[in-house]
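Researcher: We're reviewing a set of sequences before deciding which ones to prioritize for further study. For each one, I'd like a predicted 3D structure that I can look through quickly. This is Alkylhydroperoxidase. If possible, include the structure in token form so it fits the rest of the review sheet.
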Amino acid sequence: MFPSYQEIIQDTSAEIGKLRGEIGDTLRGFSAMAQAATKDGALDAKTKELIAIALSVSVRCDPCLGYHTQALVKLGCTRAELTEALGMAVYMGGGPSLMYAARASAAFDEFAAQAAAKAG
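Model: Here's the predicted structure for Alkylhydroperoxidase, in token form for your review sheet.
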């Protein structure tokens, strides 16, 4: 059974909140970098998040999977778009990436079900 990605990002966000008080300058810098990287440009937000999910699989980051699949659901990403990005991650990263692609798939389904329940 996969972990709950809602719980992972909730717990991670709480810990980041603690760090914000301890290394505020660093986190403000990280936030500025994130805003600059994600703003619309030649690539739209969904494309950038698909890149982020592939990289999250590549580096095997569970909290990253949670944050980026949640963002993809909010941006209207389809399962087909997600799985094509995951296919590229597996192709480039081999077996270990396949294991985390399965986790990313589970995270996407978790957030999509949550969004559907709120909408319905």
